[in-house]
Amino acid sequence: MAVPMDAVDDPVRHLVLSELVTGGFLILFLAVGGRLLIASGLGPLEKMAVTAHRVAEGGDLSERMPEGSTEIGRLGGAINLMLDRIGEAFRDRGASEERVRRFAADASHELRTPLSTISGYAELYRAGAIPPEDLPKIMGRIEGEAGRMGRLVGEMLELARLDRGAVLERSETDLSEIAREVAADSTALDSGHPIAVDAPHPVVAVVDDARIRQVLVNLLGNVRAHTPEGTPATVRVFRTDDAVALEVADKGPGMPPEQASRAFDRFQRGEERLSDGAGLGLSIVKAIAEAHGGRCHIISSPGGGTVVSIELPAMQEATGG
After folding, report:
1. What's the burial of 273, exposed, middle or buried (CB within 10 Å: 0-12/13-18/19+)?
2. Are 76 and 68 in contact (CB under 8 A)?
3. Looking at the chain, which residues constitute the CATH 3.30.565.10 domain(s)?
4. Ranges in the chain annotated CATH 1.10.287.130
5. With 50 as the cut, is the pLDDT of residue 272 above it?
6. Which class would CATH give 88-163?
7. With left for phi above 0 and alpha for psi between -120 and 50, is residue 122 left, alpha or beta?
8. d(Cα 226, Cα 253) in Å, to the nearest integer?
9. Torsion of CA 279, 283, 284, 290, to 10 degrees
10. pLDDT digit string (tens) for 196-218?
């Protein structure tokens, strides 16, 4: 019994048509889905490009890239980290430039005062306004101002050398012996400030002998400059678990905490100045300590005296000390 061809062809046609329609919808779906997927993947890249353009044009380092868990998101996170570092570098540079400007202004002011004094006396001398009997006194003033300028220039040069990484002449040095010698020199210079040395044992470290002496000279000089005559001071040298330390303590009037927090700043002066220094002594102390890989601390309170301590890493100790 014969089967009509239409009965065979119709299901085939429907099947082919169904497959064509399904395939078409599938291709359309894949095309649209692929486009959306590509757009979704490229969207963050386009945002990164726009953000990068804004940063380049406006210099606004606060702009941030989109982040996420994808590779593109991780790339955005890495770029954000780079922008953070660049921002920090610019802020550090700005702060450094501000410090340089402030330092130059302060140095100019400090030099202008003695120069004006010397220039004024020179003008008076040329005008014949200085009596002959006053000449020795005036010459003494001029010599004093010239010495002050010389000390200021010397201190600024020392700070400049330390700032640019001056080479330290390290050698095995007994810090206790240095403390005793500098204390003796200070007492010979000014017996009005009794100095006790608490350094019963040798503390040998590999340091720059001359600069460590300068640290103690500056600290004891501060005691003479900022405390009344008769104020006692103590120099201590000791070891801690991870450092060797120098400490100068006095029983003077001390200073308020906000002033103590700025004590190591350059050209920082106390409220009552008893010397003609420029306020660089403690700045040099800090620079020398940091050049040795160490650090400085100051503890002070009104009426409670002042303690300045210098810590040097224990790794710089001589093995035999």
Report:
1. exposed
2. yes
3. 170-316
4. 88-163
5. no
6. mainly alpha
7. alpha
8. 8
9. 180
10. 999 988 899 999 999 999 999 99
In terms of residues, how long is the chain? Answer: 321
Q: Average of pLDDT values for 149-156? A: 81
- The alpha carbon torsion through 275, 278, 282, 285 (nearest 10 deg) reads -110
The distance in angstroms from the start CA to the end CA of the chain is 118
d(CA 283, CA 158): 10
Q: Is pLDDT of 183 > 90?
A: yes
Q: Is the pLDDT of residue 311 over 90?
A: yes
Cβ atoms of 317 and 205 within 8 Å: the answer is yes
- Overall pTM > 0.85: no
For the beta carbon of residue 90, count every other beta carbon within 10 angstroms.
12
Least Cα distance to 72 among 43, 51, 52, 35 occurs for 43
pLDDT digits (tens, 9 = 90+) for 165-175: 778 888 999 99
Query: Domain 170-316 maps to which CATH number in 3.30.565.10, 2.40.110.20, 3.40.50.1820, 3.30.300.180?
Result: 3.30.565.10
- H helix or E strand, kind and range, residue 312: strand 306-313
Phi, psi of 272 (to 5 degrees): -115, 110
Alpha-carbon separation of residue 291 from 26, 198, 267, 308 (angstroms): 72, 25, 20, 17
**314 DSSP assignment:** G
Q: Which stretches of the chain are DSSP H helices? A: 5-58, 71-126, 135-163, 175-189, 209-226, 257-260, 281-291
